[in-house]
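Section: protein folds

Sequence with per-residue tokens
===
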Amino acid sequence: MKKKGRIRWKMIITFFLFNIVFASCLVPFVLFWGPFEAIKVMAVGAVETSRHPQVVRFFLSDERISEIMHTYDDQGAQVGLNIDRQSNTEDTASGIIIEDIQGQNFKGKVMLISDPKRVKVAVTQEIGVAGERLTDMVKGAGAIAGINAGGFYDPNGEGNGAFPDGITVKNGEIVHNNVGDKTVDFIGLNAEGKLIIKPMNVNDIKEKDIKEGVSFYPPLIRDGKPAVAGDGGWGIAPRTGIGQREDGTIIFVVIDGRQPTWSIGATLRDMMNVFIEYDAVEAVNLDGGSSSEMVYNGKVMNKLWNIFGERYIPTGFVVKP
């Protein structure tokens, strides 16, 4: 009897293990080839814009990936969306306003900072070793708020946010540069607090008196004009961006995503439309995905996609008191 019992339990365990393995193998085919269009766009976009885009190419051709990534071109062709704005936090003394926003497929947060000179770049204290959680980064900088900023490269395959990609400027000093004299997409704030979005090299950064800045792309609004064609071609995902109004007000935008019951995510066109809604004259996309995060007074304001909590990142834009 004991022997039969052991055999029965082995069969049950084997059955469950087989089904788990089978389901795991089936998931990519359902995501990339299944009938659920929104999930397919979200999944392909997430992998294609991640650090391992080769994964999706194992299942789909370049032509099919491009087709899926541009699924919502027609829907996003209009300038402006019906974006629902609702005041969440207004701290007159600190010059910060935070609002909830909601679009067709997304929910997120917008932070308005009236004094642009208060916005600085924070960098992980262990560049080349490990990144930091945004809450720790904001606290360590003596700031009261912040969002994630530039992307990172991963030479050791550890994915711990240790190496900021491109050129990083803090307090007027270049603190990290992995591109040498090359010109790269750059997002900088000069001594007057003006947001400058354009390709720059080290000499350009010095000539323009850039005090704070990181590398990322693409521009969403340039000189008050829309800069995104179609839906942007990056699919739907959690997103972060920074912009500026004519009066100097800095605009932080963080969109939640990859949470079908809450917020699927935004296209680059959606992000551009949010900045248009907030009267931005300059705006640019920042690192997104599981890095997208907004912090205020030590609290994470948005709904993180990463089940493990805050991601370790190399840089953030923070707001000093």
Q: What stands out?
A: The longest helix spans residues 2-33. Helices lie at 2-33, 37-48, 54-57, 62-69, 134-140, 202-207, 268-277.
